[in-house]
Amino acid sequence: MDPSFDESQFVDKNVEATGLNPGLIVLLVVGGLLITFLVGNYVLYMYAQKTLPPRKKKPVSKKKLKREKLKQGVAVPGE
Q1: What is the distance between the alpha carbons of residues 73 and 66, in angstroms, rounded to a whole number?
Q2: Contact call for residues 70 and 76 (beta carbons, < 8 A)
Q3: Whole-angstrom Cα distance, residue 7 to residue 1?
Q4: How many other C-beta atoms lie within 10 A of the C-beta of residue 51?
Q5: Which residue ranges traverse the bilayer (predicted)?
Q6: How far apart, in whole angstroms, are the C-alpha atoms of residue 25 and residue 32?
Q7: Tell me, what's the pLDDT at 20?
Q8: Please, what is the end-to-end C-alpha distance for the chain in angstroms?
Q9: How far is the C-alpha of 73 from the C-alpha of 39, rounded, in Å?
């Protein structure tokens, strides 16, 4: 055997878990923030649907109204 070969580097050293993996902590924090954001948006959306009045439609311009009536063949009043 080679004298420089040291078997002690392959011996299982007792390594105790000193807490959670830092990568896991970051993942949990980012995941938690994302879930909180999505749930908060949903709750706010549902609240707004119940409390806010329905949005008003944009007024149709008279030019567009006239063009649509001409397409349908209806005589526009005042013409």
Answers
A1: 11
A2: yes
A3: 11
A4: 7
A5: 24-48
A6: 10
A7: 76
A8: 110
A9: 51
